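Chapter review: from sequence to fold.
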Amino acid sequence: MKRLAILISLLALTACGSMKQISYLQDIESGESLPIGNSYEVTIKPADVLSIMVSVANGDANLARPFNIVTSDAKQISDGSAGASSMSYQHGYLVDPEGYINFPIFGKIQVAGMTRNQLIAYLENRIREENYIKDPIVTANFLNLKVYVLGEVNRPGEYSIPSNRMTLFEALSLAGDLTVYGKRKNIAVIREDEGVRKVVYLDLTSKDIFMSPYFYLKQNDVVYVQPNKRRAEQGAMSPLWSTIISGGSLLVSLATLLVTVLR
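The C-alpha coordinate string follows.
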Protein backbone atom coordinates (compact mmCIF):
# COMPACT_ATOMS: atom_id res chain seq x y z
CA MET A 1 0.00 0.00 0.00
CA LYS A 2 2.85 2.36 0.83
CA ARG A 3 4.48 1.70 -2.55
CA LEU A 4 1.16 2.40 -4.29
CA ALA A 5 0.84 5.74 -2.50
CA ILE A 6 4.38 6.69 -3.51
CA LEU A 7 3.64 5.72 -7.13
CA ILE A 8 0.46 7.81 -7.20
CA SER A 9 2.35 10.80 -5.75
CA LEU A 10 5.05 10.50 -8.40
CA LEU A 11 2.44 10.32 -11.16
CA ALA A 12 0.70 13.42 -9.77
CA LEU A 13 3.97 15.35 -9.66
CA THR A 14 4.75 14.30 -13.23
CA ALA A 15 1.32 15.45 -14.39
CA CYS A 16 1.78 18.82 -12.67
CA GLY A 17 5.17 19.22 -14.29
CA SER A 18 3.71 18.39 -17.70
CA MET A 19 0.90 20.95 -17.27
CA LYS A 20 3.41 23.67 -16.41
CA GLN A 21 5.33 22.88 -19.58
CA ILE A 22 2.36 23.15 -21.95
CA SER A 23 -0.13 25.57 -20.34
CA TYR A 24 -0.35 29.16 -21.63
CA LEU A 25 -0.64 32.35 -19.54
CA GLN A 26 0.05 30.61 -16.27
CA ASP A 27 0.47 33.82 -14.26
CA ILE A 28 -2.95 35.33 -15.00
CA GLU A 29 -5.52 35.17 -12.22
CA SER A 30 -9.18 34.48 -13.02
CA GLY A 31 -10.93 37.78 -13.76
CA GLU A 32 -7.68 39.76 -13.88
CA SER A 33 -7.82 42.82 -16.13
CA LEU A 34 -4.91 43.75 -18.37
CA PRO A 35 -4.57 47.12 -20.11
CA ILE A 36 -4.76 47.14 -23.90
CA GLY A 37 -2.21 49.36 -25.59
CA ASN A 38 -2.82 51.61 -28.55
CA SER A 39 -4.82 49.93 -31.29
CA TYR A 40 -2.39 48.30 -33.68
CA GLU A 41 -2.43 48.85 -37.43
CA VAL A 42 -0.09 47.46 -40.04
CA THR A 43 1.95 50.13 -41.82
CA ILE A 44 2.77 50.02 -45.51
CA LYS A 45 6.23 48.73 -46.49
CA PRO A 46 8.16 48.35 -49.74
CA ALA A 47 7.07 45.25 -51.71
CA ASP A 48 3.52 45.45 -50.32
CA VAL A 49 0.70 45.19 -52.86
CA LEU A 50 -2.24 47.52 -52.27
CA SER A 51 -5.79 47.45 -53.56
CA ILE A 52 -7.07 51.01 -54.07
CA MET A 53 -10.47 51.91 -55.46
CA VAL A 54 -11.95 55.40 -55.92
CA SER A 55 -15.68 55.95 -56.23
CA VAL A 56 -18.13 58.85 -55.97
CA ALA A 57 -20.56 59.34 -53.09
CA ASN A 58 -22.81 61.77 -54.94
CA GLY A 59 -22.61 62.76 -58.57
CA ASP A 60 -21.27 61.35 -61.82
CA ALA A 61 -19.57 57.96 -61.30
CA ASN A 62 -17.49 58.56 -64.43
CA LEU A 63 -15.46 61.18 -62.50
CA ALA A 64 -13.77 58.36 -60.57
CA ARG A 65 -12.72 56.32 -63.58
CA PRO A 66 -9.42 58.14 -64.24
CA PHE A 67 -8.27 57.14 -60.73
CA ASN A 68 -8.87 53.42 -61.29
CA ILE A 69 -6.86 51.03 -63.44
CA VAL A 70 -9.08 49.17 -65.89
CA THR A 71 -8.16 45.59 -66.81
CA SER A 72 -7.67 44.71 -70.46
CA ASP A 73 -10.67 42.36 -70.30
CA ALA A 74 -12.96 44.76 -68.43
CA LYS A 75 -16.65 44.27 -69.11
CA GLN A 76 -19.42 46.80 -68.74
CA ILE A 77 -22.10 45.69 -66.30
CA SER A 78 -25.35 47.61 -66.01
CA ASP A 79 -26.18 48.73 -62.48
CA GLY A 80 -29.87 49.24 -63.30
CA SER A 81 -29.82 52.99 -63.91
CA ALA A 82 -30.26 54.51 -67.35
CA GLY A 83 -27.03 54.70 -69.27
CA ALA A 84 -24.95 53.89 -66.20
CA SER A 85 -22.49 51.03 -66.00
CA SER A 86 -19.69 49.76 -63.80
CA MET A 87 -16.34 48.34 -64.86
CA SER A 88 -14.05 45.53 -63.76
CA TYR A 89 -10.88 47.06 -62.34
CA GLN A 90 -7.35 45.92 -61.53
CA HIS A 91 -6.47 47.43 -58.14
CA GLY A 92 -2.98 46.12 -57.38
CA TYR A 93 -0.31 48.75 -56.69
CA LEU A 94 3.18 47.47 -55.88
CA VAL A 95 5.11 49.60 -53.40
CA ASP A 96 8.60 50.12 -54.82
CA PRO A 97 11.86 49.82 -52.79
CA GLU A 98 11.74 53.56 -52.02
CA GLY A 99 8.19 53.31 -50.67
CA TYR A 100 6.31 54.83 -53.63
CA ILE A 101 3.35 53.74 -55.74
CA ASN A 102 2.52 55.10 -59.18
CA PHE A 103 -1.06 56.31 -58.82
CA PRO A 104 -3.24 57.56 -61.71
CA ILE A 105 -3.44 61.34 -62.15
CA PHE A 106 -1.13 62.04 -59.16
CA GLY A 107 1.87 59.98 -60.32
CA LYS A 108 4.35 58.80 -57.69
CA ILE A 109 3.08 58.94 -54.11
CA GLN A 110 5.13 58.16 -51.00
CA VAL A 111 3.04 55.62 -49.06
CA ALA A 112 5.56 53.67 -46.97
CA GLY A 113 4.99 54.25 -43.26
CA MET A 114 1.30 55.07 -43.68
CA THR A 115 -1.47 52.93 -42.26
CA ARG A 116 -4.34 51.91 -44.51
CA ASN A 117 -6.60 54.56 -42.96
CA GLN A 118 -3.96 57.26 -43.35
CA LEU A 119 -3.61 56.43 -47.05
CA ILE A 120 -7.39 56.61 -47.50
CA ALA A 121 -7.57 59.98 -45.78
CA TYR A 122 -4.64 61.34 -47.82
CA LEU A 123 -6.16 60.34 -51.16
CA GLU A 124 -9.66 61.54 -50.31
CA ASN A 125 -8.37 64.93 -49.14
CA ARG A 126 -6.14 65.40 -52.18
CA ILE A 127 -8.86 64.41 -54.67
CA ARG A 128 -11.26 66.79 -52.96
CA GLU A 129 -8.81 69.71 -52.53
CA GLU A 130 -7.66 69.53 -56.16
CA ASN A 131 -11.30 69.67 -57.29
CA TYR A 132 -11.44 66.34 -59.08
CA ILE A 133 -14.38 64.95 -57.07
CA LYS A 134 -16.46 66.78 -54.47
CA ASP A 135 -17.32 63.69 -52.40
CA PRO A 136 -14.75 60.96 -53.14
CA ILE A 137 -14.81 57.56 -51.46
CA VAL A 138 -11.51 55.69 -51.34
CA THR A 139 -11.16 52.08 -50.25
CA ALA A 140 -7.73 50.55 -49.72
CA ASN A 141 -6.57 47.14 -48.56
CA PHE A 142 -3.44 45.02 -48.48
CA LEU A 143 -3.38 42.17 -50.97
CA ASN A 144 -0.31 40.33 -49.66
CA LEU A 145 -0.38 40.39 -45.86
CA LYS A 146 1.14 37.07 -44.81
CA VAL A 147 3.05 35.49 -41.94
CA TYR A 148 4.94 32.21 -41.78
CA VAL A 149 4.71 29.70 -38.91
CA LEU A 150 7.43 27.05 -38.71
CA GLY A 151 8.79 24.45 -36.31
CA GLU A 152 6.87 22.45 -33.72
CA VAL A 153 3.32 23.26 -34.81
CA ASN A 154 0.75 20.90 -36.28
CA ARG A 155 0.32 22.74 -39.59
CA PRO A 156 3.42 24.78 -40.46
CA GLY A 157 3.03 27.06 -43.44
CA GLU A 158 2.12 30.46 -44.85
CA TYR A 159 -0.98 32.24 -43.53
CA SER A 160 -2.78 35.38 -44.67
CA ILE A 161 -3.48 38.16 -42.17
CA PRO A 162 -7.24 38.92 -42.10
CA SER A 163 -8.58 42.40 -41.32
CA ASN A 164 -5.08 43.92 -41.52
CA ARG A 165 -4.00 42.59 -38.12
CA MET A 166 -3.09 39.30 -36.46
CA THR A 167 -1.85 38.36 -33.00
CA LEU A 168 0.71 35.68 -32.24
CA PHE A 169 -2.02 33.51 -30.70
CA GLU A 170 -4.13 33.81 -33.85
CA ALA A 171 -1.20 32.75 -36.04
CA LEU A 172 -0.49 29.73 -33.84
CA SER A 173 -4.18 28.84 -33.89
CA LEU A 174 -4.19 28.83 -37.71
CA ALA A 175 -1.14 26.56 -37.60
CA GLY A 176 -3.00 24.06 -35.41
CA ASP A 177 -1.31 25.10 -32.14
CA LEU A 178 2.02 23.84 -30.84
CA THR A 179 2.79 20.15 -30.65
CA VAL A 180 3.63 18.72 -27.23
CA TYR A 181 7.29 19.01 -28.23
CA GLY A 182 7.24 22.80 -28.79
CA LYS A 183 8.91 25.18 -26.35
CA ARG A 184 6.25 27.48 -24.92
CA LYS A 185 8.74 29.87 -23.34
CA ASN A 186 10.91 30.58 -26.38
CA ILE A 187 8.73 31.41 -29.39
CA ALA A 188 10.93 33.21 -31.92
CA VAL A 189 9.47 36.03 -34.01
CA ILE A 190 11.71 37.12 -36.87
CA ARG A 191 10.97 40.53 -38.35
CA GLU A 192 12.58 42.60 -41.11
CA ASP A 193 12.08 46.34 -40.78
CA GLU A 194 13.95 49.21 -42.45
CA GLY A 195 16.72 46.95 -43.69
CA VAL A 196 17.29 45.28 -40.31
CA ARG A 197 16.41 41.70 -39.35
CA LYS A 198 15.58 41.22 -35.67
CA VAL A 199 14.71 38.12 -33.64
CA VAL A 200 12.85 38.27 -30.32
CA TYR A 201 11.71 35.44 -28.06
CA LEU A 202 8.27 35.46 -26.46
CA ASP A 203 6.97 33.43 -23.52
CA LEU A 204 3.48 32.00 -24.05
CA THR A 205 3.23 31.06 -20.38
CA SER A 206 3.44 34.68 -19.19
CA LYS A 207 0.96 37.55 -19.40
CA ASP A 208 3.87 39.84 -20.27
CA ILE A 209 3.47 38.65 -23.86
CA PHE A 210 0.57 41.09 -24.28
CA MET A 211 2.93 44.02 -23.68
CA SER A 212 5.39 43.01 -26.40
CA PRO A 213 5.37 45.00 -29.67
CA TYR A 214 5.79 41.61 -31.35
CA PHE A 215 2.49 40.25 -30.00
CA TYR A 216 0.80 41.84 -33.01
CA LEU A 217 2.45 40.40 -36.10
CA LYS A 218 3.46 42.39 -39.17
CA GLN A 219 3.56 41.37 -42.80
CA ASN A 220 6.19 38.73 -43.59
CA ASP A 221 6.97 37.97 -39.93
CA VAL A 222 8.28 34.45 -39.34
CA VAL A 223 7.17 32.62 -36.19
CA TYR A 224 9.44 29.72 -35.23
CA VAL A 225 8.60 27.24 -32.47
CA GLN A 226 11.72 25.52 -31.16
CA PRO A 227 11.70 21.81 -30.26
CA ASN A 228 12.09 20.92 -26.60
CA LYS A 229 14.85 18.72 -25.22
CA ARG A 230 12.86 15.54 -25.66
CA ARG A 231 12.26 16.18 -29.37
CA ALA A 232 15.91 17.13 -29.86
CA GLU A 233 17.02 13.90 -28.21
CA GLN A 234 14.66 11.91 -30.42
CA GLY A 235 16.05 13.63 -33.49
CA ALA A 236 19.61 12.86 -32.42
CA MET A 237 18.80 9.20 -31.68
CA SER A 238 16.94 8.50 -34.91
CA PRO A 239 20.02 8.48 -37.18
CA LEU A 240 21.85 6.37 -34.60
CA TRP A 241 19.07 3.79 -34.43
CA SER A 242 18.84 3.73 -38.23
CA THR A 243 22.57 2.99 -38.40
CA ILE A 244 22.29 0.26 -35.76
CA ILE A 245 19.33 -1.38 -37.52
CA SER A 246 21.01 -1.18 -40.91
CA GLY A 247 24.21 -2.64 -39.47
CA GLY A 248 22.28 -5.41 -37.74
CA SER A 249 20.47 -6.29 -40.96
CA LEU A 250 23.78 -6.46 -42.80
CA LEU A 251 25.28 -8.77 -40.15
CA VAL A 252 22.24 -11.06 -40.32
CA SER A 253 22.51 -11.23 -44.11
CA LEU A 254 26.24 -12.03 -43.94
CA ALA A 255 25.65 -14.70 -41.30
CA THR A 256 22.91 -16.29 -43.41
CA LEU A 257 25.17 -16.28 -46.47
CA LEU A 258 28.04 -17.79 -44.46
CA VAL A 259 25.84 -20.62 -43.13
CA THR A 260 24.63 -21.37 -46.65
CA VAL A 261 28.20 -21.52 -48.03
CA LEU A 262 29.43 -23.76 -45.19
CA ARG A 263 26.66 -26.24 -45.86
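Two observations follow directly from the output. The CA atoms of residues 150 and 224 lie 5 Å apart. Confidence is low (pLDDT under 50) at residues 4-17, 73-89.
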